[in-house]
Amino acid sequence: MPYWGLSRVRYYVLFPALAISLAVLYLVQLDGTGAVDPDEPRYIAIGRAMAASGDWIMPRLWGTPWFEKPPLVYWLTAAGTSAGLPPDLSGRLPVALLSLLFLAAYFGLLYREFGFRSASAASLLLGTSAGWMAYSSLALTDLPMAAFFSLAVLLLLPLVGERNAPGPDRLHARWRIAAAGSAIGVAALAKGLVPVVLILPALWFCRRHLRLVWIGVAAFLAIAAPWCVALYLRAGWPFIEELFLKQHLARIYSAVFVHVRPPYYYVPVLLGAMFPWTPLLLLLAPRLRRDLQRDERRRFLAAVVLFGFIFFSISVNKLPGYVLPLLPPLFAWVGIWFEDRRPSEVPRLLAVACTVLIATIPFLTLALPAVLSGRPWWPVPLVVKPTLLAFVLVPVGFALLARRAWLGPMALFACITAAFYLKEEAAPVLDREVSVRQLCRELEPRIGDVCDGGLHRRAQYQFALYLGHPLPLCGTGAYKVRLSQRGNERPAVIEGASE
């Protein structure tokens, strides 16, 4: 079976080359910048405290019990810490490796259902999408939850539309439901009950196997319940109140979390998370109704995406990472388009649109530090370099001039190399302007004389991670250096006595 119109030799070389390049991209520059997200330093600090204390049940943030999230990311960080990794890598490397393992499983499960073309297109598009790449390099809960939830969806895919027959088919259904329940259990250990809600459409699409649901529930409880029970026995009601009542229920209706967004918030967020492959959604439009009617598996994937999108949209509090579980089923749906079509059949206009978006990545590199620090990012401070021009002009030139058979692989290679460029160019700037890691190193010789004179909570958490404890507040003692901050800009160092 030729791939992208190339010979079988190139077909066997091209996909491994893309996969290896993607794996290298995920693993380089993981610690090129310090923590930039407000949650990341807290999760890393909790995981490192678990490794130091040997207590992997009770999460503690700088000595205080912390019940906001389940423990999976803490455990991953604790494992990285036990392996001798420094703070940033101890949390990020396990998440990056988990993402790569999931992409391999994602390819394998889709290959079994829809063949090589669909599986390779879906896995490479997902792996090079902005949302998936960004969260694969951060020690946050979103990627682990999305990976295990999506694994459960793909495990159930063969059961959709399958008859509830006796014998081997029944045995096949049992182990798939047990595996899917286990995956949802691990996803719950990453982010609570959210994956339990997102998997509800499977009850309808796997209704022929409804009598076997107890197997999935038992597998889910066997994975997720032991930690909850153990922590409840130690912490009691405050654990239930914080994790389930406040962090789950209150986020749906309460504005106290300061993440209130309009109902349409996830429309641009989801389209942006698919960048630079957003135009490929138009592939689904011409035959959407016919494809949904003829294949219940397509309907299942569409229902998972639509149900999740509505669920997240009706919640009062919204964050970009919440939609991450929708990307794997959405890209799987896009990948299925290639089941009976060659990638060379993608309209050139859509291919050009994707490569034009890839060509904007160098400009995004220039704007990213300003966006993350809250400064005005427009107009972009343009610094023309030969490498920047190459990353802008080469993809567009290929899209306009190359044979259709080469458009797919060249666009993917262009996306991966542009992402390498973004990491190489943006990491030092982010480390200097958005993270406080460099500033912490500069102040290290006299850190005992430094106090917090009005830092944003993100900077407070970052300092606490790299120091091992929160900075003392000015006014609680005699200090010679005061740190103050306006918005998310780099903290200002103010010399002089502070009491």
Task: Explain what the structure shows.
With 499 residues, the chain is mostly helical. It has three domains: 31-344, no CATH class; 346-434; 437-498, no CATH class. Helices cover 63% and strands 4% of the residues. It has helices at residues 8-27, 40-53, 72-82, 87-114, 116-127, 130-135, 142-156, 168-191, 194-198, 201-205, 213-235, 237-253, 266-273, 288-294, 296-314, 327-336, 348-359, 361-373, 386-401, 404-433, 437-443, 457-467, and strands spanning 60-61, 64-65, 450-452, 479-484, 492-498. The chain has a three-stranded mixed sheet with strand order 3-4-5, with no helix packed on it. A hairpin with a 2-residue loop joins strand 1 and strand 2 (64-65).
Keywords for this entry:
3 domains; disordered N terminus; 499 residues; single chain; 5 strands; two-stranded antiparallel ribbon; 63% helix; mainly alpha
